[in-house]
Structure formats: C-alpha cells, structure tokens
What does this fold into?
Amino acid sequence: MKKVKNLITIALITIITFSCTKEDKELQIENDSSENLLGVSLTSRCPDYTTGPERKGFYVTAGSPKDLTKYRSPYAFNLPINPDTGQRYQKKDVVGMGTDGDANLNFVWYKNYKYSAGKTEVLNSVRSPHNHTYVLPENPETRMSYKPEDIVGMAIDGENNSVYAWYRNNYVSAGSPSNLGSKRAPYHYDLAVNPRTGREFKPGHIKAIAIDGELNRTIVFYKYRYVSEGKTHDLDYYTAKNGGQAYCIDKRPAININPKHFLGAGIDYTNQHVFIWSQGPAN
It folds into this structure.
C-alpha cells in the first residue's frame, strides 16, 4: 500500500511539473537577477497607471506608445467574415495589422492567406477578404516560402506604403499588401534587450509592431508591457542610443488587457496617433 501511495505522489509531482507553462518558466528566468547576461542595469516591474473598467470583446484605442488611450478610449470593432468558414475571424486567425495614414486605411492579414482593409472599427469597409489574397517571400534559410504562422508582427510605413513582415527566424521583408516580399527580400533584424533580465527579447515576445513614417521609427510592443523604438532591422536603435533601453507602457487599453491580448497596431503618420486592436479576455 505504501508503494502505491509513493507511486501516486510521484505521478502528481510529474503532472504538476509538466503543467508549468512556457510563460511560467520565462517569468521565473525574468525574475532572476543572475540572468543579466548583457551587463545592462536591471529595472523593476513596469509601473501601471491603467484605470477604468474591465473590457470583454474586441476594442480599439488611440494614443501614444506609453499611453494607449491618450487620444481615444476603447471603442468596439469587429473582424470580418472568413470566406472559408462563413464565420467571423477570431484573434487566433490574425497574423498582422497595419495602418496607412495617407489612405486612411487599416489592414489585417489572416492565416488563410487573405487580407482586408477599412476603418478602425470596420476592418473590411474598403477591401474584403473574399477577394483579396497575399503571398509570402522565400525563407532564406529553407528556400521555401514562409507561412503565415511564421509571422510575429507586421506594419505599414504610411509615407511610402511599404508593408513590413517580421518572421520568427529574425528576418524581415518589405512589400505590398498582396505580396509581402515584392520590395525587399528578407533581411536580418535584431531585437531590444529586456530591461528586467538583461537578455535580448525573442521574436515570440513581439505582440504588435507599428511604423511612424513621419519620424521613420518602428515601434515594437513586447510581451511584458515593454516598448522599443528603432529601425526595421534594428528594433531598439533609438531606445538604445546613449545607453537607453526599452520603456514601459504606462496605460493599457483596460485593466484586464495586456500585450498578449493585442491583435495588432498601427500609426497614423499624419498625427502620430497609435492604434491598438485588442480582445479583452472573457474571464
């Protein structure tokens, strides 16, 4: 009987151990000051000045990189109908978003190789996914085309209408809404350093990217409420100048919405308003 109890105990420990998520392990590493591998000064957790009620469902806000509701509080939006299923697209179907301020259009690219464009709250009011598709460039490491699942972020430079896509293997391409590599084949990019660990962020930590064409800056929103500003190939070029580092989001779209809930971002370069599309958790 004692042997049976021991076996049950071992099984329970095994289940608990393997039930730890990847995010739990990353947070454990993040809180370990000994992980300061790059020799930068570590900071504490991001301060949070978010106020207001919890939000459930799809919302878009307008603000600055630090204050995401500075210019407009959350207002509702819907994703269009997926022509393959007849049902509305969901957050998991979105691979990237971007804003073309010159044309006043907001683009969404989906996993089924389709895209739409429209107003901030009606994302198919101008172009429908029923008749708009896109292709991806060749992965320089495999010599095969990238897949939508390889994309970690997208953005539009509103000044020249170039569409950028960043991939999990640290490459970025430039093209048009329908051909993501038509203007420039994939080239390497570097990420910012996480101020709390001293380690470089990973591509999977990217939750949204936007480009301010007027200021020629690429704004990156990361998993742990950090933001960096740089160039398309050096994502913290500006924040790292003079010893600087990624900074914090001070005000989120809602008290229950974090970067992991973001669908995408865009910047209207005509007024520097940053749009964030997100989905408030159901619970």
